[in-house]
């Protein structure tokens, strides 16, 4: 099984920056794809960015040019560098991983507990 722990959330002023981290443990070697999702009150959880095991990335249009997703394979850690933050970026950010379980089960989804990001002046 894979365990995911997010960190780095907090309060930041508009235009500021934050860096989120997601540490994976357990069967982390089997992770194929990781991503960041976010959810604000009254909204469904939405995809922010993804990164494959090979390092290919994708971003939702709202964060392109401002957010950067990356990972450190040696540390089994994924990052989300957030620059030029806007109030609309305020949400709980969740780490997600799709990891290989077995040839019978295939890939399974795992989630972190979430970390609050608040952008306000």
Helix and strand layout, with pairings?
Blueprint: E1 2-7, E2 10-12, E3 18-26, E4 31-39, E5 46-52, E6 57-59, E7 67-72, E8 77-82, E9 91-102, E10 106-111, E11 115-119
Parallel strand pairs: 2-11
Antiparallel strand pairs: 1-3, 3-8, 4-5, 4-9, 5-6, 7-8, 9-10, 9-11
Helix content: under 10%
**Beta-strand content bin:** over 45%
| Counted beta strands | 11
Q: Which series of helices and strands comes N to C?
A: EEEEEEEEEEE
Give the CA-CA distance, first to last residue: 40 Å
**Rounded Rg:** 14 Å
Quick one: overall form?
A: elongated
**How confident is the prediction overall: mean pLDDT?**
95
Low-pLDDT stretches are none
Largest sheet: 7 strands, mixed
Structural class: mainly beta
In quaternary terms, these chains amount to: single chain
In short:
The protein has 121 residues and is mainly β.
Characterize the structure shown.
This protein is mostly beta strands and 121 residues long. It has no helices and eleven strands. The protein has strands at 2-7, 10-12, 18-26, 31-39, 46-52, 57-59, 67-72, 77-82, 91-102, 106-111, 115-119. The chain is elongated and about 50 Å long. The termini are far apart. The relative contact order is 0.31. The model has no long low-confidence stretch (mean pLDDT 95).
């Amino acid at each position: 099984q894979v365990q995911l722990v997010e960190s780095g959330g907090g309060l930041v002023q508009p235009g500021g920056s934050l860096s989120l981290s997601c540490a994976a443990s357990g069967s982390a070697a089997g992770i194929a794809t990781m991503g960041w999702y976010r959810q604000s009150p009254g909204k469904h959880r939405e995809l922010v960015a993804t990164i494959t095991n090979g390092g290919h990335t994708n971003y939702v249009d709202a964060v392109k040019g401002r957010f950067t997703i990356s990972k450190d394979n040696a540390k089994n850690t994924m990052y989300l560098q957030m620059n030029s933050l806007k109030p609309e970026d305020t949400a709980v950010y969740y780490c997600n991983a799709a990891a290989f379980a077995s040839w019978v089960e295939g890939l399974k989804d795992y989630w972190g507990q979430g970390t609050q990001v608040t952008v306000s002046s």
